Amino acid sequence: MTKVRIIKSWPPTEDDGLPDLFRRIGRFGVLSQLAIITVDAAFMVYVLIIRGLSEGVGFREIVVMFGLAIMLVTTYIFFRYRQFGQRMLSLDKVPEFDKVVSALWFGLWVSFAGIVLSLLLLFTAVSRLALMMLAAPQSGGALPLAPVNVGFLSALDGVSLMGSLIVLTVELVLVGLTLWLLFCTSEYEEYED
Q1: Could you give the CA distance from residue 114 to residue 116 in angstroms, rounded to a whole number?
Q2: Nearest to 170 by CA among 62, 78, 44
Q3: Which residues have C-beta within 8 Å of that of residue 74, sequence separation ≥ 6?
Q4: pLDDT per residue over 35-71, tens digit each?
Q5: CB atoms closer than 10 angstroms to residue 142
């Protein structure tokens, strides 16, 4: 028994469900990214106020700023997905098939860059905690760590790890949704008239 792949013609109709899928995933992506950006930015401002600006901006803060910039870009990309879904239903403003596919691929690669930055943040945070625990294994980091200048272990470190995990989780979900949109869009082909 041979399998036959059915190719649908572009643009999709409302009955196909693709425009609605683009709108729903776009809305979810924008709202989830805005929530994460708000929490992440508030946390970064809080850390800078607690730690003070006298210590300067370190490697971790620079990576967090790049992560926030990538999240802003992916928020815009998901906003475009929502616009694509709305434009697919209008007869005069239908987006070109190639533009939709290239926007999906661009969104996928930008999301991967965000995941790499989140993993980099997680590895640096866990490495810092491991150094603290190894420097003073009996105190658990509650005392100043004289032999290795890594600072104090605080609740802020735990909150930072939790924030990084939440950001990574949202980014992975959004990559999965983008892959789903790419899969659903691959059922279509633009025909020349």
Answers
A1: 5
A2: 78
A3: 29, 33, 107, 110, 111, 114, 171, 174
A4: 988 888 887 777 777 766 666 667 777 777 788 888 8
A5: 11
